[in-house]
Every structure is written in C-alpha cells, then in structure tokens.
Design goal:
Layout lengths: L4 H14 L4 E5 L2 H12 L3 E9 L2 E8 L1 E2 L4 E2 L4 E3 L8 E2 L13 E6 L2 E4 H7 L3 E7 L1
Antiparallel strand pairs: 1-3, 2-3, 4-5, 6-10, 7-10, 8-9, 8-10
C-alpha cells in the first residue's frame, strides 16, 4: 500500500520517461486526477484516462516526446510538500520554477492549479511539486 500517491505518481512518470515508455499506469485518486488534468492543460502529457480493474481504478497517462530522438517533454519532476513536512505558500511568495519555464502545482482552496493561475487569482496554498 502506498501512503504518498503523489510521490508514487511522479516517480512512475520519471521512470517511464527514462526508458521512453508511451504510457504509464498510476493509482487513481482525486488528487492524481487533478494533477493529470493540470499536466495535460500545460502540455506535459498527451492524454489520460481512468480504467476500472476489479475493485481498483487506475489512470493511464500518455507521455509526450519531441524530435527524432524522442526526447521527453518532462525533464524533471520534484516533490516539494511531503506528508511529513507540508510546504505552504501565500499569494505573495508563490515559487517561480526556472524563471517561469517550469510550473509549480499548487493545491488551493479553489482546486489544484499552476503557480501562474494561483498568482492570477490571488490565491496561495500547498506547493505539491515542481515540473520542468
């Protein structure tokens, strides 16, 4: 049993990118669905769909690659807020990842969104991860 489904999701994506897999299967929770939606909106993954298998449900993420050498679109994923040490940020101190080239995924009171959307809406929240 996995306690930190977000870290598990990021690790599975990172490992699948290293070996150039087309799809990756992650455990389906409300939070992983919301993170997958943000990744799709930002162009880091092609698509995602939910699959029911016996009593469990999974998300299948289609990873995105570019060029003839199939370089992954996602260069790195970093988990920031962990179950043992939560990291929060107010609207004035929202992080910028690589000077705006990457995104920070923030869990706010209005849902899961990127740092740019949170800044635009004047919201702070829990900093889940960085992706670039």
């Amino acid at each position: 049993m996995v306690n930190d489904t977000i870290a598990d999701m990021l690790t599975r994506i990172r490992n699948a990118n290293l070996v150039h897999h087309q799809i990756v299967q992650v455990q389906s929770t409300k939070m992983t669905k919301r993170i997958s939606k943000v990744l799709k909106e930002q162009g880091f993954i092609e698509n995602f769909e939910e699959i029911q298998k016996e009593a469990k449900s999974y998300l299948l993420l289609s990873l995105k690659y570019k060029g003839k050498k199939r370089q992954p679109v996602i260069n790195a994923l970093k988990r920031i807020s962990k179950p043992g040490l939560r990291v929060y940020s107010n609207k004035k101190e929202l992080p910028r990842v690589l000077g705006g080239l990457g995104i920070a995924i923030i869990s706010t009171s209005s849902g899961v969104m990127t740092d740019e959307e949170a800044r635009r809406n004047g919201l702070g929240g829990e900093v889940l991860c960085y992706i670039w």
